[in-house]
Amino acid sequence: MDFVNTEDDFLLEMCSGRAAWTVIPNNTAEIDLEAVTLAIENDGWTCTLRNRLCCTFTGEADITLFPSGKLLVKSGVREIAEKIARQHVEVWMSYSNAHNEE
Known about the structure:
- By secondary structure, this protein is of the alpha+beta class.
- It has one domain: TATA-Binding Protein (2-Layer Sandwich).
- The chain is about 25% helix and about 30% strand.
- It has helices spanning about 35-40, 80-90; strands at about 5, 10-15, 20-25, 45-50, 55-60, 60-65, 70-75.
- It has a 7-stranded antiparallel sheet, with helices on one face.
- The radius of gyration is 12 Å and the shape is globular.
- The protein starts with a strand and ends in a 12-residue tail after the last helix.
């Protein structure tokens, strides 16, 4: 399994099948799903599913956001996944009031 740990902000883990990556933000137990969803939409992504368990979006790649702050990036290209992961951790999650720093 491939891992990319960038400056301790997040763990980027390749999923089996090598067609997707999981972004696991460090020091985050829960996010405000609605607030982060709005931030992603304001960044030009289209929300295709919105419920209490997850939100899915289309844009540069298909992504799925979970209440834990984890993000699934459906792309086999590490550079795309890492770019989206950085945007998620540095920008989108900053809109969450529930973002927990331990």
